[in-house]
Design goal:
single chain; alpha+beta; 4-stranded antiparallel beta sheet
Length: 335
């Protein structure tokens, strides 16, 4: 496929923003809404919930009536869960949009081919569709996970019902893994749209691909950084608190028997203690960064695959155009 070099190059960035203006407004509205909620969580909502818990802790449990601000405690919990769930869902929404609207719909309707005949090369077309959304998504999600971590820290040690750092949703909403997975979703949806060239199938496949990457990363996460093992006797039980990798019994021979399928029951007669292999809070950032690096590596592979798919498709179109031109020329000469 060739373009006329004499044609003026269109302003592809401006056209992209105008074409996807509803998605841009929706994303901006979501960022603004979550920013407001998380600022409230880090300030007045956390303060009110902390005061409610102080009142509850001061209650005499023998009394039949205890007055404390339960509404503030529940309000903090609910808004925290709303903000966390929205952040966790964001990468999958990005994947669905990227597959359905960013590339899938343009390939299905022929808008992409029209752009390639108007002075924009296919490679430039794809680069703009990856770079512009990626910059906006990275900026928005980085702001949101920083605010979420700030909101979570405001309740730490003050709100008794606050989530632990290793809670699955809290862990990812608190750090850059959310931003990295959102970029993975963008790349996965883009690849699905280019490969399938249909809106609905690309939406489904892009989302499922992102879900698969997230699931594999979650299985690998505890093993991306060396864990700590602590041993306690039979009276102490499991020692240490954090993200658990393995737990079980220590036998008289020093063997560690992980619990599962009745293994601990069979080894209990020879047990002398318990072992707990886990990640303490000091491993929070190493786990965040290694998981984010894994997501970004997968994103790079998906982007490379997108360019290869586009190259193959435009190469086929170019070959078909050349063959058609040659046939037309032959007909004119014979006439």
């Amino acid at each position: 496929m060739t373009t006329d070099p004499t044609l003026p190059r269109p302003r592809t960035v401006r056209w992209l923003l105008r074409l996807h203006r509803p998605a841009l407004y929706a994303f901006a509205g979501l960022v603004i809404l979550l920013t407001a909620v998380q600022l409230a969580l880090a300030g007045p909502l956390a303060d009110a919930a902390a005061a409610g818990w102080r009142q509850f802790d001061a209650c005499d449990m023998d009394m039949r009536i205890c007055t404390y601000d339960q509404a503030s405690i529940l309000r903090y919990k609910d808004y925290y869960d709303y903000a966390t769930d929205a952040l966790i869902a964001l990468p999958f929404l990005v994947a669905a949009w990227a597959g359905a609207a960013l590339t899938g719909r343009e390939m299905e309707t022929g808008t992409a081919r029209l752009s390639w005949t108007q002075g924009t090369s296919p490679a430039r077309w794809l680069t703009v569709r990856l770079a512009v959304p990626a910059s906006l998504i990275a900026a928005g999600t980085c702001l949101l996970f920083w605010l979420h971590h700030r909101a979570w820290s405001a309740g730490l040690g003050r709100v008794d019902s606050a989530k632990r750092w290793y809670d699955l949703a809290t862990f990812h909403a608190n750090g850059p893994t959310t931003a990295a997975l959102a970029l993975t979703g963008l790349a996965a949806g883009t690849l699905a749209g280019l490969a399938l060239r249909r809106t609905l199938p690309a939406l489904v496949v892009g989302t499922l691909l992102t879900v698969g990457v997230a699931g594999v990363a979650q299985q690998l996460l505890p093993h991306l950084w060396p864990a700590v093992t602590r041993i306690g006797d039979l009276h102490q039980g499991y020692r240490g608190d954090g993200l658990i990798v393995a737990q079980g019994l220590v036998t008289r021979t020093g063997e560690h028997v992980s619990c599962g399928s009745g293994a601990c029951d069979r080894a209990s007669v020879n047990a002398v203690g318990y072992f707990n292999t886990y990640h303490p809070y000091s491993h929070y950032w190493p786990l965040q960064l290694t998981t984010s690096a894994l997501f970004l590596a997968v994103t790079g592979l998906l982007v490379l695959a997108s360019y290869l798919v586009l190259r193959r498709q435009t190469g086929a179109l170019r070959a078909a155009g050349t063959a058609t031109a040659a046939g037309t020329k032959g007909v004119l000469v014979s006439a």
